[in-house]
Amino acid sequence: MQNNKEKNDLIIKDFPEPVDSFRAAFLPDRCNLCGKVIVHNTVICPDCRKNAKVIRGERCLFCGRTKNDCECKGRSNFYDGVVAPFVYEGVVRQSIARWKFHDAERNVNFFADMMIAAMKGAYDDIKFDVITFIPQTHKETKDRSYNQSEQLALTLGNKMHIPVKSLLVKLYETERQRNLSFIKRSGNVFGVFDCCNRKMTDGKTILLIDDVKTSGKSLNECAKMLHLYGAAKVYCAVIAVV
Ligand SMILES: [Zn+2]
Ligand SMILES: [Zn+2]
Q1: Which of 36-50, 62-76, 200-214 ranks highest by mean pLDDT?
Q2: How far is the CA of 28 from the centre of ligand 2 (A)?
Q3: Does the N-terminal or the C-terminal CB of the chain have fewer CB atoms within 10 Å?
């Protein structure tokens, strides 16, 4: 694992760039995690600041948790690293589940800023050629109104000035990974993804985005396909890891 040199003191910063200043003048700011009205130009409420489990300090790039919480036990993956700002529990878990019922645009900005902060240190020396995301089938995107991973990727692309490309397709529908037992998750995604843009994959260093990493099977399966189609490196970033 390369450059795990970071001293990651991830802090949740207030006063982000306003998403829409006209709108902000009329609507109250809401906590990006619980949705409560908060003081203008802050990003989360005091309770969430206390309760959200932020991943700080030295990270394990295989599972995304801190070195102290790592449960990898030498398991290897097809991806070259995974980084997340949060642990998937409590208010963070609820916030991701409720995403589209709140202010999705503001949420996606907040989560993208936190992911960028988490990538500092861990991915500093890496030059990404392209950002891509875990795909959904057309029906899944229709049922869920949109693909959260794609929205995150697009926002990150804007902020990091890296092109965002759809490099993967999902061939058929699956049960949501987070609803399945650990044993069932691997079989659930095996052979489900394919690479759809070999030109943008071959020889490239890719940042692969998802909203949540549970077992890591989806990220792993997608990273495997990207490597099969010639990707040089595949690094992952998610909002939260289990
Ligand atoms: Zn809150
Ligand atoms: Zn680990």
Answers
A1: 200-214
A2: 40
A3: N
